[in-house]
Amino acid sequence: MKFFSHIDIKILYIFTDIQEIYKELEALENLGRQARDILECRIEAGLTDISLTPLCDLPEEEAIPMCDFLTLTEECCRDAAANISK
């Protein structure tokens, strides 16, 4: 009769270990979901903003001197950097 009780205890330990493994797997799945949410909401949104940001405004009506174009481009990049970093 001792033989069966020893086996029953081992089965109980194995069952408990399996339950702990499933709990840890669930925690890992939650961590993966959180990482995907961060990637989608923060990183990809930031990259989308960057990709849609113009770095210079080209004059449409008339030509402007190079130094004025450089000044406009610097201002545009400064404004873009301020908007992206918000």
Polypeptide structure, described:
The protein folds into two domains: 1-52; 55-86. The mean pLDDT is 86. The protein contains two helices and no strands. With 86 residues, the protein is mainly α. Helices cover 80% and strands 0% of the residues. It is rod-shaped. It has helices at 2-51, 66-84.
Q: Would you count the extended β strands for me?
A: 0
| Rg over alpha carbons | 30 Å
List low-confidence stretches. Answer: none
Give the N-to-C terminal Cα separation: 72 Å
Helix content: over 70%
Helix-strand sequence: HH
Biggest beta sheet attributes: none
Provide a count of the helices: 2
Topology:
Blueprint: H1 2-51, H2 66-84
Short description:
The chain has 86 residues and is mainly α. The chain contains two helices and no strands. The chain has two domains: 1-52; 55-86.
Using brief descriptors, characterize the structure shown.
single chain; 86 residues; mainly alpha; 2 domains; 80% helix; rod-shaped
